[in-house]
């Protein structure tokens, strides 16, 4: 498995969940991988477990100073990425709510991380990729950006719709400089993010019943499309959205 030999990737939200699975798979495919996360101790342990092809950087994607410092740190270490997976995100279960009941603070915390944080990651990713002569940026979107997947997901759905729009626009703006930007939209994928659903048998059964293949997604399910988009095999794919959802959005 050497489809990413010679690539250097930076993956945000890599301490756990989908980001960790992507980082692990990229290393297995021969890439050097910077695991970035706001949870410094957890991302340090995660990178250490992946061996010498991995290193950690602590960065809160919603803080421009922290994002700039993290990219500067990896660049000065000789790990300037040519693949960036802007994956970190939050879903504030129990706080996100129908619009009339949604606190502005919950809205802002969601938008600050999911949308502004993705924008900041993309901003510094584009600069890094331009210095490398091009590369691939992959955003983690969501089916709820397009279909309403939950009546209480107001801030989350709006933030992810913004991510999808951001991806298309940045793809168009930099296509002539060999930078590709694509969005992957996983459906229900069992990670710590969705423990409010996976720990409740009734909620879990309800969501799995809406997935035609009849099971929940796993982080490993999302890694194959990420490898394709990160590799040169994906060189004609840009500005697109790729679903990995067990058929959830067919209905
Ligand atoms: N799990 C799902 O069902 C699902 C479905 C669709 C989309 N997504 C999206 O996939 C992405 C990854 O989700 P996951 O399920 O792996 O979540 P997770 O909670 O398991 O992991 C998210 C990681 O992101 C990090 N993080 C959160 N805020 C951050 C910030 N401000 N700066 C840096 N790191 C930060 C966390 O510390 C954590 O390590 C998110 O963007 C999420 O919205 C998840």
TrEMBL record:
UniProt keyword annotation of Coiled coil present: no
CDD domains named among the record's database cross-references: SDR_c
Protein name, UniProt field: NAD(P)-dependent dehydrogenase (Short-subunit alcohol dehydrogenase family)
Residue ranges of coiled coil: none
Keywords for the protein's UniProt record, in alphabetical order: Oxidoreductase
Family: Belongs to the short-chain dehydrogenases/reductases (SDR) family.
Source organism, top-level taxon: Bacteria
Keyword DNA damage listed: no
Cross-referenced Pfam families: adh_short_C2
